[in-house]
Amino acid sequence: MTVTTEQLGATTLLRFATAGSVDDGKSTLVGRLLHDSKSVLEDQLEAVEAVSLARGQEAPDLALLTDGLRAEREQGITIDVAYRYFATARRRFILADTPGHVQYTRNMVTGASTADLAVVLVDARNGVTEQTRRHAAVAALLRVPHVVLAVNKMDLVGYQEAVFAKIAQEFTAYAAKLGAPEITAIPISALAGANVVEPSADMPWYGGPTVLGHLETVPDSQDLTSCPARLPVQYVIRPQTPEHPDYRGYAGQIASGVLRVGEPVTVLPSGRTSVIAGIDALGESVDVAWAPQSVTVRLADDLDISRGDLIAPTAGAPATTREIEATVCHVADQPLTVGARVLIKHTTRTVKAIVKDIPSRLTLDDLSPHPDPGQLVANDIGRVLVRTAEPLAIDAYADSRRTGSFLLIDPADGTTLAAGMAGTDATGGEHAHT
Fold first, then answer.
1. Residue-level pLDDT at 23
2. pLDDT > 80? residue 21
3. Are residues 295 and 207 in the same domain?
4. Whether residue 411 sits in one domain with residue 294
5. Is 53 in the same domain as 104?
6. Would the N or C end of the chain have less CB density within 10 A of its end CB?
7. Domain containing 384: what range?
């Protein structure tokens, strides 16, 4: 494969995730995208052709380009999140191909948590399933800015417009109740390559974009610099060398916003204040730094700051809280129960906490809350109230996906129990936390 100068110069980056029920054709779609956009190395394609031939298949099975684990190839299913990087002349892409099995919903949460766009596949023969609804709910909860409904296997329903229209209407109505953004519905056949990279002559009734055409042109709406500035401290740098006897810097990745030298800042949760005396980035002093750069900040005052603290401009600093009301996606095999003692990991800070209440669990069929379920089991989506042992400077997830999210962890063995979104209602609303 030859990478063109235009591809190397494609500067805008889109992160997107694929999701769908089992055998909806996610891996085939991803393989088709990579193959038809000429983003597959020749030796990769030769290996796929060899395996396909050994199985007695006449054409190469493009799903093998993404089902990289041996267990995935043997079982013919996608187990883990497979990240793929490719580029066209117009844009660079990071793709998270997530599993379709219900027991791997946790992987879909992982893949969609940083995505600008989610591609939800539906088999045209089966229509919208419970797993489709679950994926739509996760995409809405995670505030994925753009959702593409790809109605796949249109070749198996005779490319009928009525079949596509019915599925698109049902899914769009469901997603709207969740508060999801505008849905772009595209009829495709991943196996035949119809409307994936090239338009299909078999569906003249469809006048919209292909999947790749939409991916190349959808607006990049995840502007981290427009959010209030937040720097979670990852490491305190004190070299104590003859060249730098008094150097004290606070290193981390800027989660959102812009930091400037001379700006008054507050350190949380202590509430102590100072002024940014200097910013070091890539070994050089700079006056301004922005998300998602990794920097070291120096302050004018000698404050007691350690890993897990948060540095934010005094104007617009978040309030600290010990009570967090949030929506969580439960991802562990063991249930999450009222009274459970957990760890909560928020940015670089991890503190002890207790689950005070589980007010409701989301019923996926009609999006109604099931009150007082008592516990959440694997793949449940529900509301929780958590009380922390120490205060956290947490934003509402609607304001910042990075500093409004957290993990609940089992303190006994470190297992991730749930992924949480502070203040986010399971049907698109907001709840304040105090």
1. 75
2. no
3. no
4. no
5. yes
6. C
7. 320-422
Question: Mean of the per-residue pLDDT values for the chain?
Answer: 85
pTM of the model: 0.80
Residue type, 100: G
Handedness of CA 184, 379, 396, 260 (dihedral sign): negative
Q: Which residues contact 375 (CB under 8 A, 6 or more apart)?
A: 335, 336, 337, 338, 358
pLDDT digits (tens, 9 = 90+) for 155-213: 999 999 999 999 999 999 999 888 887 799 999 999 888 999 999 999 999 999 999 99
- The pLDDT value given to residue 222: 63
- What percentage of the chain exceeds 90 in pLDDT? 53
Residue type, 407: L
- 109-136 residues labelled b (16+ CB within 10 A) or e (exposed): bbbbbebbbbbbbbbbeeebbebbbbbb
How many whole angstroms separate alpha carbon 307 and alpha carbon 276?
18
Inside any domain, residue 272:
yes
CATH code of the domain containing 230: 2.40.30.10
Q: Say if residue 36 is in the same domain as residue 136.
A: yes
Mark residue 58 as left, alpha or beta (left: phi above 0; alpha: psi -120 to 50; beta: remaining): alpha
pLDDT at 71 over 80: no
Alpha-carbon distance 366 to 194, whole Å?
33
DSSP letter, residue 317: P
- 349: closest CA among 418, 400, 403? 403
Q: What is the CA radius of gyration of the chain?
A: 24
Cα–Cα distance for residue pair 110/292, rounded to 1 Å: 19
DSSP secondary structure string for all residues of 231-300:
EE--EEE----SSSTT--EEEEE--BSEEETT-EEEEETTTEEEEEEEEEETTEEESEEETT-EEEEEES
